[in-house]
Amino acid sequence: MKKPFSKILIANRGEIACRVIRMARQMGIATVAVYSDADAAAMHVAMADEAVHIGPSPVSESYLLGARLIEAALTTGAQAIHPGYGFLSENPDFVDAVDAAGLIFVGPSAAAIRAMGLKDAAKDLMSKAGVPVVPGYQGSNQDAAFLAGEAEKIGYPVLIKARAGGGGKGMRKVGDPAEFAEALVSAQREGQASFGDPHVLIEKFITSPRHIEVQVFGDNHGGAVHLFERDCSLQRRHQKVIEEAPAPGMTSEVRAAMTEAAVTAAKAIGYSGAGTIEFIVDGSGPLREDGFWFMEMNTRLQVEHPVTEAITGVDLVEWQLHVAAGAPLPLAQDALQINGHAFEARLYAEDPSKGFLPATGKLEHLAFSEHARNDSGVRSGDSISPFYDPMIAKVITHAATRTEALDGLLRALGETHVAGTATNAEFLSALAQHDGFVNGSFDTGVIERDLTALTSSAPLSEAHIAFAALAALKLDPKARDFGFRLWGHAEHALRFVYDGEVVERRITLHGDGAVSLADDLNDGLKLSQLSIVGAEMTARIGDAKTLITAQVQTATRNAELLVSVLCDGVVRDLLLPDPRSGLAMAADLGDVVVAPMTGTIVALGVAVGDHVEEGTKLGVMEAMKMETSLLAPRAGTVAAVLCAVGDPVEGGAVLVNFEELAAE
Ligand code: ADP
Ligand code: ADP
Ligand code: MG
C-alpha cells in the first residue's frame, strides 16, 4: 500500500504517542511530537523526528489546547493529526477545527463523534437502528422526582449515568429507592465537574454483568468491518484493569449477533476509522443472543486495542493512517479471523495496599519481560508526573490458548521490574491467578468482591532481604578466585528501611563461601552456592532443593541507597538510609576496609596473612583525580584482599577483610 502521509503530528503523550510514532516510522512517515513543560524530556519527544513545545504542564494549558496543536501541525508541515485516546480524541469541535485548517484528523468525522458523544442520544440512535440497548430512561426530563419514578418503573438496582461521562466517572449504582435522591445529586455533580454537563440517564443495572465490546473499523467509502470482541469485565470503579480477546465462553451464534449489531451501529453513523461498540452482557449464565445491550460507542482507538491486534494480526494504527488518507479498508470481513488468545494488563504507578493511591516519582529502574509485548511511554530514569495518568505500561501476551496466554501474562508480570515507585504489579498477578478469572467465569464485580484478598501484599521475604544485603554490601563471591574461603567469619550489620519499617540483619560470611543472615529472633538463614552475574544473583537458601534467582538493582537517591529486588515475581524496594552506615558499623567492628567513594585502586601494599597495625596504609585509590589512602581500622591479620591494582571499585565496596578478633 502506498504511504498515506509524509508527516503527521501526534496530539498526545505517553505510551499511545510512542505507539503511533513507532508505526509511523515503520511506514516511512515523519513524526512531530508535542509536549508540555513536564514532558520536555519524555520518551515520546525523544522518539519523534521533531517536537513542539505547546505549554505548561497542566493538560488544560497544553494537551487540551486544540488551537496550539493545529498551529504546531501547520508550522511543521504535518498533513494529519493523530489524537491517540483521551485528551481531544473525541472532541468534535477539535475535529472541525482540524478540518477547517486543511489538515486531516486521523479518526471519524465530527458528525459521527457528535452522534455518539452523549450516551442518551447514542442509545436513541442505536435503538432506532435496531441495536438492543440497556432498558432505561434517556429522555430530557431531569426532574428529580420524575427520575425517581422512572427508576421505580425500570426496577432496582439501577445505574445513574452522566450522559457525557467517560472513564467510569459520573456513574452511581443505586440498589435501594431510599438512596436514589442522594446518588442522583452526586452523579449530577460529578457530571458537571468532570464534563461540564449534569444531565443523566437511568439504566437497569444488569446483574452479574460482563463488559464485552466489539472493535469496528469503517472507511470513507461506506465499508465497515468488525475485528471480533474483547472482554473487559475485570474492572475497578468502572475502569478496565485486564482485558482479553476473544471473550471466554463466546459461541459462534452470540458472536455473530454481537458483531452484526456492532457493524450495524457503525454503518448507522457512516463511521470511518477505528471505533468500539461497548455492550453490557448478562453474565449470570451462558452467553445468549438476546443477552447483550449497547452501552456506548468510543469513537477512537481504545487503550486495549493491542489484544485485538494480537489475535487478528492487524495493526490498527496502520489501518487508521491508511483509512484517514482515503484508502479503502485493507481487508474484507471474510479475510479476518481469530488466531489464539490475548491478554492485556494495565501496569500503573499506584499502591493497591493504600487504596490504589497514585504514586509519582522516579522510575529508578524499568525492565520488561522479553516474553510479552510491552507498550510503554517511560524508560528507566523517567519520572511519573502528577499531571497525567500514572500508567507505566500495558503488558500484552498472546498464545494459542487462553490458559497459555494467561500463564504468559503471569510470567511476564513476574519478570517486570519497576524500582523506585509503587506499582499495581502484584495486584495484577493476583488477578491473573484468581480462580473465577482463570476459569473464565467472572463478571465486573469480581475485583470489588475479592478486593481484600487481591490487594493483600505478601510480607517481605527473607530471600529479598538476603539478596538486598548482598547487593548493599557489594559482596561478590565470584569476583576473586580466592573467594570467601579466606575471609574468616566477617560480620556485617545492616539496617534497611522497608515500607517505613526498620529491618535489621547481621550478615556473617563463612569460610565455605556461604552467607548467613540473623536477627534478634532468628539466627541462621544460610545462603550457599552464591553466584552474581551483573544484576542477577542466584543462591540456595537454607537446604531448599532448587536455587533461587533474583534481579537486584541499586540506585543512590540523595544520601540513601535504594536496593530493589525482584525475586519470585515480586519486587521489593529496600532503603539503606545512609549507604555507608551499615558498612561503617561493620568497619566499627574493625573487620573490613571499604572504598570511601567510587574510583580506581592505584596501589596495594597488603596481602593475605599480613599483620598490620592500626592506621597502616594498605593501599591508595584515586577518585575524581584525587588520591585517598586506605588505612587499617585496627591492628590485625588480613583475611582477604578483594581488589587489585587497576580495579574500578564502587563507593562502599568491601576492599579488605580482617580476621576476626578472638572473642574475649
Ligand atoms: P472506556 O471509555 O470504556 O473506559 P478505555 O478504558 O479505553 O475505555 O479508556 C477510557 C478513557 O479514559 C481513555 O480515553 C483514557 O485516556 C482515559 N483513562 C483510562 N484510564 C484512566 C485513568 N486511570 N485516569 C484517567 N484517565 C483514564
Ligand atoms: P464510560 O463512558 O465511563 O466507559 P460506560 O457506559 O461504558 O461508561 O460504563 C462503564 C462500565 O460500567 C461498564 O464497563 C460496566 O462495567 C459498567 N456498566 C455500565 N452500564 C451498566 C449497566 N447497565 N449494568 C451494569 N453495569 C454497567
Ligand atoms: Mg465505556
From TrEMBL:
Keywords: ATP-binding, Biotin, Ligase, Nucleotide-binding. This is Acetyl/propionyl/methylcrotonyl-CoA carboxylase subunit alpha. Its cofactor is biotin. Residues 123-325 form the ATP-grasp domain. SMART domains: Biotin_carb_C. Residues 580-659 form the Lipoyl-binding domain. Residues 4-452 form the Biotin carboxylation domain.
